[in-house]
Amino acid sequence: MNDRDRAAGALATARKVVFFTGSGISAARGIPTFRDKLTGLWEKHDPERLETAQAFRENPQLVWGWYLWRRSQAGQAQPNAAHLSISRLAATGKQVSVITQNIDDLHERAGSQNVVHLHGSLMNPICFACKRPAVITIDQLQVSAEGEWVEPPRCTRCNGKLRPGVVWFGEDLPAGAWKAAMAAVRNCDVLISVGTSGKVRPAADIPEIALASGATVIHVNIADVCLRAPNELMLMGSAAQVMPALLQVTPSR
């Protein structure tokens, strides 16, 4: 029996399924990641350098403008077949959870519930000073198609500058998100890791935690990231192609 058949069999009998997703599931939608080469206004800037608290302190207009542009790019993208197949699996009666490293909202727009954002979300700004969540108007989200430097709005509580509600390099994951992720991972029957690089910790440890808890782990990726544990399966290919084919053959329970 090959890995695809074994994966279908594991899903057929699973009651609790966790999807652990990374940039590979959204890349086909044109959403740039920090590893992508920038163009236009951002061409001379290192995206990894822009994703730090220090960069925001030094030039908040640059960083806020960069994230407004990223939010605009994410807003124009649409969920693909992989995102949609996850929400359709939940409709079969299985208990489905999503843990994502992505900061876009494509899972939610595809209809998924119980989405845990390990690295925060572009959609939810917070105050750089007091860390409280903030609400901003549609006008404050406007940015040109090419991007531009923009003065960050101010917090209505402390007057601090607003920043994106994402986890920057050197920052801890939100405690609540990690706790929720661990509860799901340690109690699932199958974990499907989709489009993750396996390089960003502690998120990269999630498949191993699932394996240690007795789950079957299915990797969907264009690169072989399987460690060859007994209950670990590798499905090569793009998420948008592999996921619908895999989940379509899973009988409803």
Q: What can you tell me about this protein's structure?
A:
The protein is built from nine helices and eight strands. It is of the alpha/beta class and 253 residues long. Helix 6 (106-109) links the parallel strand 2 (95-100) and strand 3 (115-117). It folds into two domains: 1-28 and 79-119 and 172-253, Rossmann fold, CATH 3.40.50; 32-76 and 121-166, SIR2/SIRT2 'Small Domain' (2-Layer Sandwich). 32% of the residues lie in helices and 17% in strands.
Q: Can you describe this structure in just a few lines?
A:
The chain is 32% helix and 17% strand. The protein is of the alpha/beta class.
Write the layout of secondary structure elements.
Layout: H1 3-13, E1 16-21, H2 47-50, H3 53-58, H4 60-76, H5 81-90, E2 95-100, H6 106-109, E3 115-117, E4 120-127, E5 162-166, H7 175-185, E6 190-194, H8 206-212, E7 216-221, E8 232-236, H9 239-248
Parallel strand pairs: 1-2, 1-6, 2-3, 6-7, 7-8
Antiparallel strand pairs: 4-5
Helix pairs in contact: 5-9
List its salient traits.
histone deacetylase activity, NAD-dependent, NAD+ binding, SIR2/SIRT2 'Small Domain', 253 residues, EC 2.3.1.286, alpha/beta, zinc, two-stranded antiparallel ribbon, elongated, Sirtuin_cat_small_dom_sf, Rossmann fold, 2 domains, 9 helices
Number of helices: 9
The main sheet orders its strands as 3-2-1-6-7-8
How large is the radius of gyration?
19 Å
**Count of separate structural domains:** 2
Low-confidence parts: 249-253
The CATH topology of the largest domain, please? Rossmann fold
CATH homologous superfamily identity of the largest domain:
TPP-binding domain
The helix-and-strand class reads alpha/beta
Mean pLDDT: 88
Report how far the terminal alpha carbons are from each other. Answer: 23 Å
